[in-house]
Amino acid sequence: MKRKNVWTAFVLIVVMAGAGFYFRNSLATLIGRQTTVRAQTTDQADSTVTIRPATDSAQVSAAGNIALASQQAVVLQAEGIITQVPVKAGDEVASGDLLVSLDATDLERAVQQAELDLAVKQADLDTLVQPAAPADIASAQASLSSAQEALTELQAGPKAAELAAAEAALTAAQASYQTLMAGKTEAELTQLAAEMHKAYVTLEQAQEAYNKIAFQSNIGSTQQAMDLQNATIDYDTAKAAYEQATAPPTQADIQAALKTIKDAQSQLEALQPTKADLAAAQAQVASAEATLANLTDGPTPTERRAAEIAVKQAQLTLDEAKANLAQANLLAPSTGTVITVGVEVGQQATAGLNAITLADLTALELTINVAEVDIPKVQVGQPAQITVDALPDRTFSGVVSRITPSSTSEGGVVNYPVTVRLHNLDLAGVRPGMTAVATLANEGAKPGWLVPTNALQEFEGETTVTVVRNGQRSQVKVTKGTSQGEWTEVQSADLRAGDQVVGKVSSFLDQQNNQGGFRGPFGPPPPGNR
Fold it and tell me: What range defines the domain where residue 388 resides?
């Protein structure tokens, strides 16, 4: 029991010792803070600064150069020699105005050729689907009958009379050869001589009759001239026959006789039909039957479809030729101003060449570089106020149209390009390339206050400022924001316009010498500072 009381007394002594130590330290800290506040109050007893709205911190300003929002390249769609360029840089054009004209001779010829080809294909289709004329059907039927008869004759073999005639021709050819080789008899020679003499007498008589009218201008068309010509031929023939009969047979005569025999043999053999002859005759019958069927039944679906496709292909070719012809005149696709002209008259141009560049001079934009710390304050659609260096008395409005996701870095500073589209309400005098400044208001930022940086007091994680109202001092809690030099942005529901805080800013010591021209990081100094 005594041991328990001893332990209880020991615990109470330890607790009382710890409480005394904590009280002593807290008291020392409180006395130190009061001493510090008292020192600041003593040092700054006569130094107060009027707080001011931190409106500038909710804005982002940056400079850039005015540029065209967009340019439109107008390219040639056809090739040829340029014959006309009626525009020059700076001209305003409307949609559909002529910009460039090409020589269209070859293109017009291509249209004509395509029209002719379409007409031919259409005529072929019309003929194909048109019913056959009775005369064409009758002709096809006659051709079929003839082919069938020829096949029947081949299948039946040669006629007896044809066979006898072929055999007789062969016998005669063989006999003629034998006679040639044996020579003429005395009686045959006498007969040939008599025929030659008779032909000579007839020729003399015809010559005498011709001589009597030889002076006439139409002698060539008279009966006497014809008689003389015939008599001359008969005499030459008879003379040649006699001379041939009296001369020994030549090698050519022998070869001719042998050829006659061979031809007679071939003719006799030809009377016997071969397999090839029968096949050819059968093919002729099949062709005649198909022709007649086409005339009576009309075209097959495949033939009709092929003809229709040919017409469509010809129509597509014509449409393309007309489109190429239309593209010989390059027209303005929209209203705008000519920025550049890249072609000239007489130039051989190719399809795809950038001939004209158009732009809307009323569609302007400004690209600025926004620091990475300010980029969260910027968003697409955010309004902007733009001032142009060349037009200092005017302010223009715009809106953020694009925020480039990639950044740029220069001198260790990271920026993001932000594009501001100017409203084309009144842009008179504004030209591409002019230097301008855009100010973007962060409408969603909470309003704050600017206080001297040395007015802030830190204690146990809390920040306060000493506010003087009606000669009375009080500590007001604030949330510290961005600091720049002697000024710091703070947030507090207990601060209001006109409040003065204990602190100093050396920037205002010479404001009379600057005559109000000083601008610190948050704008010009507020009035009423002491």
Answer: 58-71+359-441
